[in-house]
Amino acid sequence: MSDLKIHDEHTAPEAARGNLAAIKHAYGDIPNTLGVLAENPAALDAYLALSNSFDHAGFDPLARQVVLITASIENACHFCVAAQTAAAAAEGLDAGVIDAVLKSQPIADARLDALRVFTRRMVRQRGFVSDTEVTVFLNAGWTRADILGVILGVSLKTLSNYTNHVAETPLNKAYRPFAWAPCTRACAAGTA
């Protein structure tokens, strides 16, 4: 475990306190990941800016969660999978779609499933997706701009996923009902 502290609006470096106070005022709590990122105010600023940009990248709320949860699963981030699942539930998003993403199973909506698969491949292949994979994504009804939107979402989650790996960030109370753990070898082999 690292020595990274989970800051609040009182303990964070001065340059991060305003952001944390605004988050607490808006949501009633500070997600622990943001408290960790506050140790470096520029990292917190970057996460918040990427998050805002991703919100305006052209995806509807359900598609955004498909990208964010898929990337977090692929990066094995217990915190972000739980936090994004909690956000999806709070937004009243299609539970069947979210459940399929959580189980890495096909989504009944072919367009959303193409988004899930493309995001997964983007993460697994470190961006080296093939022309064929791009064509399949585009043929499912997505655009070239959406390719960059997926990259933006993956970038956002990489920042928080890696932070949570290093910090071993504990779940906030609100996220505990959505706790998730990466599949073990036994799970992957179907023996767990």
What's a concise summary of this model?
With about 190 residues, the chain is an all-alpha fold.
Helices and strands in order:
Elements: H1 14-27, H2 32-37, H3 41-55, H4 61-74, H5 78-90, H6 95-102, H7 110-124, H8 131-139, H9 144-167, H10 185-188
Helix pairs in contact: 1-3, 3-9, 4-5, 4-6, 4-7, 4-9, 7-8
- The total count of helices amounts to 10
Distance between the termini: 27 Å
CATH superfamily of one domain: AhpD-like
Q: Name the helix and strand elements from N-terminus to C-terminus, one letter apiece.
A: HHHHHHHHHH
Averaged pLDDT: 94
CATH fold title of one domain: AhpD-like
Return Rg in Å: 17 Å
CATH architecture of one domain: Up-down Bundle
Shape: globular
Q: Beta-strand level of the residues, as a percent range?
A: under 5%
Percent in helix: 55-70%
Q: Give the total of beta strands.
A: 0
Give start-end ranges of low-pLDDT stretches. Answer: none
Class per helix and strand makeup:
mainly alpha
Q: What is the makeup of the main sheet?
A: none
The CATH class of one domain turns out to be Mainly Alpha
Oligomer, anyone?
Answer: single chain
